[in-house]
Write a structure and sequence with these properties.
The chain has about 425 residues and is α+β, with helices and mostly antiparallel strands. Helix content is about 40%, strand content about 15%. Strands 1, 2, 3, 6, 12, 13 and 14 form a seven-stranded mixed beta sheet that branches. Strands 10-7-11 form a three-stranded antiparallel beta sheet, covered by helices on one side. It has a two-stranded antiparallel sheet with strand order 4-5. Helix 2 packs across helix 11 and helix 2 packs antiparallel against helix 12. It starts with a helix and ends with a helix.
Length: about 425
Amino acid sequence: MTRQKHVLALALALSVLVATVASSASAMIDTPQQSKAATVTIWDFFVNSPKERAALMVVANQWAKKTGNKVVNPGDVADSLTKYPLAARGGRGPDVIQFPHDNLGRFAAAGVIASSPATFAIDTSLYAPVATQAITYKGKIWGLPIARETTFLYYNKALIAKPPKTWPELIAAAKKLTSGDQYGFLWAPADFYYDYAFIGGYGGFVFQSTKNGFNGRRLGLATPGAVAGFQLIQDLVQKHKLVPPTTNYDIMDGKFGSGQAAMIINGPWGVQNYAAKKINFGVAPLPTLPNGKAPTPFVGVQMLGVNSRSKNAKAAWDLVRYLSINLPLPLYKASGRVPATVAASNAKIVKSNPVTQVVIASSNNGQPMPNIPEMGAVWTPAASVLQLLVKGEVTAREAAVQMTNQIAKAISQQG
């Protein structure tokens, strides 16, 4: 399953576990009146998700009424991540755009998104630290977060009563449950998105994290920690014989949905499918690694940014702040998107949902997917080398070196 499909699927995924929308008012913030009424256009990322868009517009119109401004939303904008840079450069783009944070670097590098003005006050304590890190690029904040997602462990309660707390426990339990076409544990072993939890948990990294953001010239996939992560990935497939090397997302997803897999690694986008198939599932953070550390899954953050060419920049930034504070809870009630704000994350309705709590706990352990343009050069080389690793055709050390060299070469060719 592609990362794009993950984002689109998440709009509906948790709705089956979220209580009916309550009629409570969202928290308000004092917003100064604009000297001149502005019409602020927003492109959201809620394609084919009318409930989420409706929640957005209720809150946006609260802001409009409070400030005397107007908010316009054209509805579905197909392929908005591709269309936006072209529209922004031509002066036809929206004032505010919602997008997954891993697009931030390329938008900033293209000059189509604005960093927060010096006069724009941001209280970062309102947001989960991982979300604040996700919206930081080259030492500046380029918008504000509204939601987050990450991966965790699903388990079929009909096959295993409780989730294992460590990987040695998982391996032992999975071996007992593996026979023929019945599997104790599955995941997509050649998918870097899912594998990073092991790599980062052992101390490896894609790009060095600094106070100013990610350093695209400092790779950490050949460090001892990364090699240890690659070794565990290979061992789960080759040594312990738990996962066939050709297993991909669709196979894993299908086996769990048919009751043929006791445990898998997936994200909240899988909830609706498994509930529809009457799987009695539970969720838990990924088990503790053999080094005693928690895995560090990639975290995705939905954020709002302001067009660098907006003629309504002041009003646009004010709307972004208002939405980032007041939208997360209504959005959660509409679809189950997990809030990026601390206050919404601690709301009773959010804390009562086991899936949401696992997403929050796992994202707090996780790391934001690097938001720099260089990340675009990672996926293809990583997938190619991981295929060799899980088939046993290279050692963990060889995989680490090959992956690093191929990614470095791809970055040098980005232009």
